[in-house]
From TrEMBL:
Response regulatory domain sequence ranges: 2-115
Annotated GO MF terms: DNA binding
Keyword Ribosomal protein carried by entry: no
Coiled-coil zones: none
Alphabetical list of PROSITE patterns matching this protein: RESPONSE_REGULATORY
Modified residues (4-aspartylphosphate): D55
Keywords of the record: DNA-binding, Phosphoprotein
Keyword Nucleotide-binding applies: no
Gene3D superfamilies: 3.40.50.2300, LytTr DNA-binding domain (2.40.50.1020)
Name of this chain's protein: DNA-binding response regulator
Amino acid sequence: MKVVIIEDEQLTANRLQAMLKKYDPEIEIQAILPSVSESVEWFKTNPDPALIFMDIHLEDGQSFSIFEKINLDLPVIFTTAYDEYMVQAFKVNSVDYLMKPVNYDELARAIDKYKRVHAQNKSGSIDQLLRSIHQKENGYKERFMVSIGSKLKAFETDEINYFFSADKLTFLVTADNIRMPIDYSLDKLVMMLNPKEFFRINRQMMVRLSAIQNIHVFPKGRIKLDLIPEMKEEVMVSLDKITPFKEWLGK
């Protein structure tokens, strides 16, 4: 079976690829595509795969726009951060989903469903799926699913005070100082979180307004933040973010 993975997080794509090979070593990964534009160009010049694994948020926009740019009537399993209401919309259309972080058992069940349903040419309506996605495209992420051993734990976005990146990983930090790795880059989180509540202060951090305890202003306009819970390192607003940061505070 030939498969295409559309995912802009390399670690997530690698994990998915490894699990697909575990499910069936004969699965052929035709391509791993990180963006809408690269996906569109790839499908214009390459034979169709049997199945697509597709993230919703890509580095250059929402993945559903791929269907609007080219005629792509193929079965899709979404790897998505959308809530349960959105998930139900996918399932109505006989298009399955994988909540991040991807779980092997759910992956296996999704492929089994593909074999039962799509292999018999009973795929759902892409148009109906796109309408469902458009209805939710302006929604913000409400929870994060995190792998803890063999279990998944949900962290509500309201519990999270800030996110930071370190050692090529991204971590969430709750108000009571629980720190857990997640499968999203800060670039992606900017698109997923409510900009009224969260602001990316530099390349390594994104903070919630209510997590800011004190703001220190230094010569030449430099700004340092005290956060709840406290970070071991100094938390500085980068120079190019100072003006938009002040505007964000004023809102």
